[in-house]
Amino acid sequence: MAYELEGIAKKLGIAVKFSDGGLVRKEYEVSAETIRFFIETFGYKADNETDIANSLHKLENARWQQTLENIYVVPQDNIEFDVVVPEDWQNEYFDVRLFAKGEKTAEKIAYEISSRQEAALIKGKNLRRLYVRITSPVKIGYYNIELSVKGKTFKTMLAVAPIRCYEAPAMERKLWGFAVQLYSVKSNRNWGVGDFTDLENIVRICGRAGASVIGLNPLNVLMHNFPENASPYSSISRLFLNPIYIDVERVPEFEENDLQLIEGTLAELRNSELIQYGKVYPLKISVLEKCYQRFKNGKDKNRQDAFKRFCREQGQDLERLAVFQTLYDKFSQEVWGGWTAWPAEYRDPRSPEVKRFAEEQKDRVEFFKYLQFEADRQFSAAADVVKEQGLGIGFYRDLAVGVGKDSAEVWSNPEVYIKDAGAGAPPDAFFPGGQKWCLGAFEPRILKEQCYEPFIKILRANMKNAGALRMDHVMSLMRLFVIPDNGLPGTYIFYNFADMLNIVALESHLNRCAIVGECIGNVPEGFMDVLHERNIHPLSVLWSERGDNGWGDFFAPSEYPKAAFASVGTHDMAPLKMWWYGYDIELSYSLGLIPDEEAKTGAYHKRELDRWKLLFAMDSNGVWPEDRPRGNNFIYGEGYPEGLVEAVHRFMSRTASQVFLAMPEDILYVEKQQNLPGTDRDKHPNWRRKLPVPLERLESDIAYIRAVEAIKKER
Which helix or strand (DSSP H or E) is residue 9 part of? Predict the structure, then answer.
């Protein structure tokens, strides 16, 4: 029985064993309970031997049940798809017509039909699988296929993908830029959180510095009713922007008298050490509500026409987001537990009750659409500044691996997400306890049945205005660790890796957007080779580019992957000065992430060794600034080395990697971590730290000036 259970799991892409990504790799056998959970979640039964036999039979015969699959995703150099027909049709004439998406006239193509002697007897019918191969050149893109035989016509969709992802022409040379958490940007004019006007100013600063790329945290919309849920990696929709980034004073409907009652509050919010989301967001919304009323009653026909056009273009996705937010406005006061706890008739976006509610609350629904309209306008204006400044890549956006389970995205299309489970990660070198992200995970078979449309939409939305896209946890194109909500241990769920890669490559070309894969953690064997073949750029982080699984020497700059986007750290890691002093060790110990004194002492001893190795790497590569050479070993509490920031940034700029991203936190001597994985805001103020220097003073700050000079010496 166990063997047959594993057989079903294999066909459904459920891992029955796996190894973690820890320093000492550990093998895990997945329990039968976990396997059964996912089998049943995917719509099959596995309670007993009869159920298992029936499910296996059903799975083995599944492909024989339809003439064509819903979609075929194929590489441009091998355009082939299969077709299942009655055996006596195999010698008939097959007419194959290819239509570019949206076109009514078929393209002229040459094709051939072949058989590989694949046959089956299903419900008394002898069936044969044939293969259609298009032999004439076909441009990359999406097509509709019509296959006619014996007076019957069958339809499918064809996605023709390039072999490699898009490469920006500017990347022929070595580039550099900044990795910015937009919310953390401090300025004398914003309302206590970074906004799209700050982003425009950052673009101009980069232009003056000679930088070519600006890495951004995910900009997606978060929970309207609970603004303190601030993680940019747990949005309610990856299709739309977070209205908190709107510069309210640049909204066309804004009036100066809107400031009269809030000037004192604005001063408090600007001067606070941490971002006060619970005050900033409601304040912005209160003024934006006034702006919306003026917009609705205004006479600016061009702007109102632009709004209508935006709503038409965004279609059902925007409508459902706005309805979801309006429903949440209502039920957050009445029901605890998110949308799955709402009355049943409101859990289905297609229900008559939801439609009636949307009509009754049309004005509020339109307000949420207005927020997206204005956010899109301001972000696009920032992208226009990128073009004016001539940045080689421009915005390097960040696509979160998943979406919050309590989200508009899951509510709008629950069928495409694995039910009663969420994405996470097993233990690895950085997170020995594993991670439970509580994010919705695509159900692989349903995703394909929906022609990958949910995935394609998300790619397009996050490639907008971007020259590069970072795919968080890019291993999810192949497999994702999914954890049941009922307390059972998780396991990996496998996706159609070839299809997912081909769609990413296709969308990268259609949107002229390079692809970067975040692949820190449990990386499958051979995975990096596939990324290289498909021109998906890896990330290289100073702290992980070391020998002996993080215990050895730092790799020399020449050893860094040429294709990589390199950085000192990430938002999940300690900034350079914090790392040097080991404040992150003490923080983790105080929060119980380091279990005891012995482990803490061991971490400090390792950090002393690591600091020595870092100094040795700087010495060996001759990157200390001429006016700040290393004076001593700085090992036993002798302070923060003068020149270390410049040395590290020269070192990283010297790497073979195509792109180096400097983090303002490292440059500006920040001693506190932006996000501490494994904690919530009750333990650590994640996603709330502001940069110490206002944007208006950045270019005159000596630390910034010296770091930029150090980078430009090597880039």
Answer: helix 2-12
SS3 label, residue 237: strand
Identify any residues that bridge with 159 across adjacent strands, giving them in sequence order: 73, 142
Q: Which amino acid, residue 240?
A: F
Tokens linked to 157: 């969709």
d(CA 391, CA 409): 33
Euclidean distance between the first and the last CA atom of the chain, given in angstroms as a whole number: 61
Q: How far apart are CA 185 and CA 202, in angstroms?
A: 9
E-state strands within 376-440: 394-399, 403-404, 421-425, 435-440
- Total Cβ atoms within 10 A of residue 484: 19
Compute how many other C-beta atoms are within 10 angstroms of the C-beta atom of residue 698: 22
pLDDT for the residue 636: 61
Among all chains, which residue has been given the structure tokens 């907008």? 464
pLDDT digits (tens, 9 = 90+) for 46-105: 998 899 999 999 999 999 999 999 999 999 999 999 999 999 999 999 999 999 998 999
Q: Beta strand 213-216 with 394-399: parallel, antiparallel or unpaired?
A: parallel
Give the three-class secondary structure for 238: strand
Q: Which of 591, 216, 206, 309 is nearest to 433 (CA)?
A: 591
User: Structure tokens of 594?
Assistant: 């380091």
- Residue 213 pairs with which residues in a beta bridge? 177, 394
Nearest residue to 3 via CA among 40, 37, 35, 42: 35
Residues in the chain: 715
E-strand stretches of 270-409:
394-399, 403-404
CB 26 within 8 A of CB 20: yes
Percent of the chain with pLDDT over 70: 98
Tokens at 666, concatenated: 């490292």
Measure Cα distances from 565 to 292, 340, 510, 635, 649 in Å: 41, 40, 22, 30, 14
Q: What is the pLDDT of residue 337?
A: 87
As to burial, measured by CB atoms within 10 angstroms (0-12 exposed, 13-18 middle, 19+ buried), residue 271 is exposed
Kindly state the DSSP code that residue 31 receives in the 8-state scheme. P
For CA atoms 51, 419, 320, 449, give the dihedral sign. negative
Task: List, as one string, the DSSP characters of 633-698.
Answer: ---SS--PPTTHHHHHHHHHHTSS-SEEEE-HHHHTT--S-S--TT--TTTS-TT-BPPSS-HHHH
- As given in the structure block, the two tokens for residue 111 are 């094709």
At position 432, the amino acid (one-letter code) is P
pLDDT (tens digit per residue) in 562-605: 999 999 999 999 999 999 999 999 999 999 999 999 999 999 99
Longest Cα–Cα distance in the chain: 86
Name 119's bridge partners. Answer: 128
Contact (CB, 8 A) for 68 and 74: no
CA atoms within 13 A on the CB side of 507: 24
**C-beta separation of 624 from 643 below 8 A:** yes
Where does 210-300 have alpha helices with state H?
A: 263-271, 277-297
The model's pLDDT over 391-405, given as tens digits with 9 standing for 90+, comes to 999 999 999 999 999
Residue 162 in contact with residue 79, Cβ under 8 Å? no
Show the tokens assigned to 273: 């050490």
| Residue (of 376, 409, 408, 191) closest to 282 by Cα position | 191
Three-state SS at 361: coil
- For the chain, the average pLDDT equals 95
Question: pLDDT tens for residues 630-677?
Answer: 877 776 667 899 999 999 999 999 999 999 999 999 999 999 999 998
> What totals of helices (H) and strands (E) does the chain contain, helices first?
21, 24
Task: List residues bridging with 130 in a β-sheet.
Answer: 83, 115
Instruction: Look at residue 428 in the predicted model and tell me its pLDDT.
Output: 66
